[in-house]
Amino acid sequence: MTLLVYLLVAIVVLGVFFLLLSSAAAAYLKFRGTRLVTCPETKEPAAVEVDAKYAAFTAPMGERDLRLKDCSRWPERQDCEQQCLGQIVSAPEDCLVGNILTKWYGERTCVFCGKALGEIDWLDHKPALMSPERVTLEWNEIPADKVPVVLQTHMPVCWDCHIAETFRRRYPELFVDRSWKPRESHLSS
Ligand SMILES: [Zn+2]
């Protein structure tokens, strides 16, 4: 009889432990990553990162205890009340920078070759951008809080064209064909 009680207690403890662990893991996956919010103070875009480990730790108590790990306005405004967290709680997926970029590229074609960018390979062949000065760049050259402006002013470029264009820019003497240029039809759209 005693053994049966011990067994039941062990099963209950394991069950509770598993539930806590799964809710912590879900919270961690949900809140990791860089997000774009509208700063309640400046009404301008700010790039923030939720403290995902803390969110996982406090997951059993709900999402009331979220806090930021980083913000593009820090360290100057590190003492703010972090009211932007409300925007993240109400739409956690929509403000993820990765999701914003995936959606933007998914609806566009490369300005050089016209290829539909569709599904993005962010590991090996991540897409790039062309600036208004017609220089291609990668996303790691752009601060996250500038993403909204950049999406308005820059054009999408596929990985292959970015590599080719970078090569052309560095070694212009190797290229006889000077007619290589972005497709005008894309520029005017
Ligand atoms: Zn291309």
Q: How is this structure best described in words?
A:
This protein has seven helices and six strands, in the order αββαβααββαβαα. A hairpin with a 6-residue loop joins strand 1 and strand 2. By secondary structure, the chain is α+β, with helices and mostly antiparallel strands. Bound molecules: zinc ion. The site of zinc ion has 7 residues, from helix 6. Zinc ion (ZN) binds next to helix 6.
Summarize the structure.
The chain is α+β, with helices and mostly antiparallel strands and 189 residues long. 40% of the residues lie in helices and 12% in strands.
Labels describing this entry:
189 residues, alpha+beta, 2 domains, 3-stranded antiparallel beta sheet, 40% helix, binds zinc ion
Shape: elongated
- Unique bound compounds: zinc ion
Report the uncertain regions: none
- Indicate the radius of gyration in whole angstroms: 23 Å
Strand order of the largest sheet: 1-2-3
Describe the sheet with the most strands: 3 strands, antiparallel
Helices, by number, come to 7
